[in-house]
């Protein structure tokens, strides 16, 4: 850290600061920006990740308003929700890129430190698309004054956070109520999201084909049951019901607000990513980007921080799928091919220490393929699979799993730290 400040001092004296901003920022913000970039660069050089957290942290220590200063003058979109925000952010940044340079936190550093670092690193760009942790959305709205906020979904991230889902919807609702100028792009299929977004005067609704519904069976407004039929839903005790979406996933494409259907070709697998692409098109649409301009860019996105990455090793084509909560396990089963599948579960801090969420996931779709299991909590998973009547084989390491399957595709579905472990074995694939 001492080195970081020494470097900063050199930068200040050598007068290279003019290039880092558009010349309108206060001196403190300029100094903070430079310190942030320097610390991030040193952290990267020291092999400690991409440095975005430490860089942003230092910048905000020097100037608590740094994020606001850096966001000023940019058209910003924030992307928030429990699932899909990293991928949707990546796709949205690609789509908005039609118009000009876009700053984005593409490594999933989705709190204000990460945002600060991402904007400092990119220098002045006309646009920014920022993945935003659900909890921090109100704070980041205040700091960045976004043009667009995209609300994807709200579901339990881990069992020990279950009660937070309704609180989160309330938090969003309150934050948006104070900013009627923000254009909200929101998921019509999620009652909690609809409730949070409905008060905003400028809301565009999308339907991305959400399947997970277990966290929204009670109306957040009146406490009555939510009823569902086909794709529709409504509260039996108050006027809350599914709004008509302007952007809709249909078959392997998306219908836009004018009613035109566009074929969506992605390198990312599964229906869930088609939904993420529809959301990205809707957000980019608020900036004036047309689907026909954005689609070629979406089709070039291959993997995001290792997710969906494919690695060839010893004749096996390994594909990595991250699943961090019941909703995303369901999506992962949909994405995975009918091929040998390795499941890896840890229960370290970032995963949540409680594995009882395993009982909320129906593993029966895996019955007709070879299943291998590993990870710190493989035995919890074993019990769950046994009850679900899914045959499996336990392996101690990733290499052992590789040796057990024939040449061809190996699907790997893992929760957060288990995913990072396997990524490390495969040399930090991107
Ligand atoms: Zn109701």
Structure write-up:
The strands form three sheets. This protein has a nine-stranded mixed sheet with strand order 2-3-1-4-5-6-9-10-11, with helices on both faces. Strands 12-13-17-14-15-16 form a six-stranded mixed sheet, with helices on both faces. With 430 residues, the chain is an alpha/beta fold. The chain folds into three domains: 49 residues; 234 residues, Mur-like, catalytic domain (UDP-N-acetylmuramoyl-L-alanine:D-glutamate ligase, 3-Layer(aba) Sandwich); 116 residues, Protein-Tyrosine Phosphatase, Chain A, CATH 3.90.190. 38% of the residues lie in helices and 17% in strands. The protein is built from 15 helices and 17 strands. The radius of gyration is 22 Å and the shape is globular. β15, α13 and β16 form a beta-alpha-beta unit. The longest helix is centred in the first third of the chain and has 19 residues. It starts with a helix and ends in a 5-residue tail after the last helix. Bound molecules: zinc ion. Zinc ion (ZN) binds next to loops.
